[in-house]
Each structure stands twice: as structure tokens, then as C-alpha cells.
């Protein structure tokens, strides 16, 4: 049996959730609260819970603060955030606060039920709509980064690539100059050009960028 405490400041929404969850044979709603402070008082009066299903925006104490306090005082209780807030910053803050799951309020009933079961088993849960949105953003980010890397790679001359490899091998400017039969000043110019083209800050970040971008292996 999964014992659930509902925390939602809108009574109509809370009643609807309670009705939905009571229809599941392995669920039992053991308490309801309209804000974080009420929820903590319930838990302090020995109301038993395995999962806390809470909104974020509530008076007196919001769901994120409640999640942090529950993690500190009742570490065995798992929290699933149910909110209208779909920006990823709230998702990140929720998990940083100790939540095990995050769902949007337009979630399908059966998906929410599945999410509650997952969270009760200490598994992470993100609703499908939010997961899809995040996946699209990550994909676009890496596509832009790949385009940037390709542009940088195409902009580097063969000599700059050669200097880059020797820098990564730990050679000094003078040692590189000796190997390439050129002047130390010329090598210094190549090093600065590499840092400028890759938009890195120094030699260490240049080498990190080069390996991450596949310019060095």
C-alpha cells in the first residue's frame, strides 16, 4: 500500500486528485493540506506517508521549501512535484530540493499514477511532455554546438592544428618552435590565434575544448 499526502492550495484540484488516487487499490490518501505548513503539521501529528504529492506555488510555504524540509526531517518520504510551471529551472530546483519526480498538471491520469508508483520506489520520474521538451532543447543545444565546432575546425590551418597537438603533448613554445623550425614568437602567435578562434580563456581550456570537440584524440 502506497500512502500519499496531497498538498494543493486549490480545493477543487485537491478533491479531484484525491478522488483519482482513491480509485487505485494500492493507493491510500492519508492526508490533505492546502500549503506546506499544513503538510508539515500533518506529518508531525504522525500522519503516515510514503509519497508527498505537492504543488509549488502555495501560500505560507511553497512546495520547494516543503520538499527541502521533508527531505531533512522525513528522509524516507518521497516527493513528487505537480505544477503548472514548465520551465526547466523549476525542474532543476525541485530535484536539487530533494524531489524524486516532477509532473505538469495537464498530465494524463494514468501517467500520474505510474509516476507515483515510480517515486514510491525511489525512482526518478519526469512526465512525458516535460521530458520531450527537455530532449528537444538538449538536441538543439548540441546541434548548435556541433555547428560551432565544425566552423572552428574548418577555420584552423594545418599549422595551427600541428601546434595544437604539440601543446596538448605538453611542449613549451620554444620546444614547439624547435620542432617546427620556426621562431618562438611565431608559435606564441599560433597559440593566441587558437585561443581566439576557439573562444577559450587560456591554454588549459583550449586543450579541454580540443578534446571535447574531437580536434584531438
From TrEMBL:
Q: Give me the segments passing through the membrane.
A: none
Asked if Ribosomal protein is a keyword of the record, the answer is: no
Q: Which GO terms describe its molecular function?
A: DNA binding
Name the UniProt key words of this record, in alphabetical order: DNA-binding, Phosphoprotein
Q: Name one GO biological process term.
A: phosphorelay signal transduction system
Q: Which residues carry this modification: 4-aspartylphosphate?
A: 55
Response regulatory domain location, by residue? 3-120
SMART domains (alphabetical): HTH_LUXR, REC
Tell me where in this chain the HTH luxR-type domain is found. 149-214
Against InterPro entries, the record matches this protein to: CheY-like_superfamily, NreC/VraR/RcsB-like_REC, Sig_transdc_resp-reg_C-effctor, Sig_transdc_resp-reg_receiver, Tscrpt_reg_LuxR_C, WalR-like
> By what name is this protein known?
Response regulator
Task: Output the lineage of the source organism.
Answer: Bacteria, Pseudomonadati, Bacteroidota, Sphingobacteriia, Sphingobacteriales
Amino acid at each position: 500500500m502506497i500512502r500519499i499526502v496531497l498538498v494543493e492550495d486549490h480545493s477543487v484540484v485537491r478533491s479531484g486528485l484525491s478522488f483519482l488516487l482513491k480509485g487505485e487499490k494500492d493507493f491510500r490518501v492519508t492526508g490533505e493540506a492546502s500549503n506546506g505548513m499544513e503538510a508539515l503539521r500533518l506529518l508531525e501529528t504522525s500522519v503516515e506517508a510514503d509519497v508527498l504529492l505537492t504543488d509549488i506555488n502555495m501560500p505560507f510555504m511553497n512546495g520547494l521549501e516543503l520538499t527541502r524540509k521533508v527531505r531533512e526531517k522525513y528522509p524516507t518520504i518521497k516527493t513528487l512535484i505537480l505544477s503548472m510551471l514548465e520551465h526547466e529551472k523549476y525542474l532543476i530546483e525541485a530535484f536539487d530540493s530533494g524531489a524524486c519526480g516532477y509532473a505538469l498538471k495537464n498530465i494524463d491520469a494514468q501517467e500520474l499514477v505510474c509516476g507515483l508508483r515510480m517515486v514510491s520506489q525511489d525512482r526518478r520520474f519526469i512526465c512525458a511532455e516535460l521530458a520531450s521538451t527537455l530532449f528537444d532543447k538538449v538536441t538543439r543545444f548540441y546541434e548548435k554546438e556541433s555547428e560551432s565546432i565544425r566552423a572552428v575546425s574548418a577555420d584552423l590551418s594545418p599549422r595551427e592544428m600541428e601546434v595544437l597537438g604539440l601543446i596538448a603533448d605538453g611542449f613549451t613554445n620554444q620546444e614547439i618552435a624547435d620542432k617546427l623550425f620556426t621562431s618562438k614568437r611565431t608559435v606564441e602567435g599560433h597559440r593566441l590565434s587558437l585561443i581566439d578562434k576557439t573562444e577559450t580563456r587560456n591554454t588549459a581550456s583550449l586543450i579541454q575544448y580540443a578534446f571535447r570537440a574531437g580536434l584531438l584524440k
